[in-house]
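[step 3/7] fold_predict: job queued, chain A
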Amino acid sequence: MSEYTTGELAKIAGVSVRTLQYYDKKELLIPSKIQTGGKRIYTAEDLNKLKLILLLKNLGLTLKSIAEIIDSPNSTKVLNLLLDQQEKALKDNLKTTKEQLKLVENIKRDLPMMSQTSLQSIDDIDKIMENKKALRKVHFKMLFIGIIIDIIEIAALLWGIFKGQWMPFVFAIVLVILLAGYLSYFYYDNTNYICPNCNFEFKPKFWEVILKPHNSRARKLRCPNCHQENYCVEIYDEKQTIKTNK
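[step 4/7] structure written:
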């Protein structure tokens, strides 16, 4: 029969000697033999028992629960009940983790690219998230009007091609120009920009917004505060909320 000292068993099982000493103290894994001088000797049966303890511990069971399983004459039934409880706890934790992950994703999505913005309270995060939500509403309205413009253009063009009547197309083009003008001003009126260099919020001139290069979240503008030209971050103009509330 194989026999192991405390150090040998610890090395085989991949645990520390202190862990085995703790299990011994808690009477969870008592060595099969204790030689003269207090030297502890473990057997292959002790090794298998240790493997069971480590397996149950990795499943999240407490040492108290593991002891109940090992000491119970109906250990399989006890294990099943404890695993049911552990499964429920893990599912609850998983639900909480998913909710936290969703919150993290929402905050990351709603945070503007403002590296110098300091957060002093939860109100700061709420304000940033509300700003991004308002900005998304602006983008959605622009997309909706843009689709209407496309429909008008295509419908008028098809009418002219198939009916040979081009006057409706002329009127449609005029309407499209008016709608495009409104759309441009609506976008300009509802957006401000933040300089990434000095964190200054400003509203540029109309033609700067229309003509300057941009990406989906920023526009290359010259900051009136630090006078540097950078890709400034687009945000919702909070004054529009004040106007609406009035």
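[step 5/7] annotate
The chain has a mean pLDDT of 86.
Residues 122-163 form the longest helix (42 residues).
exit 0
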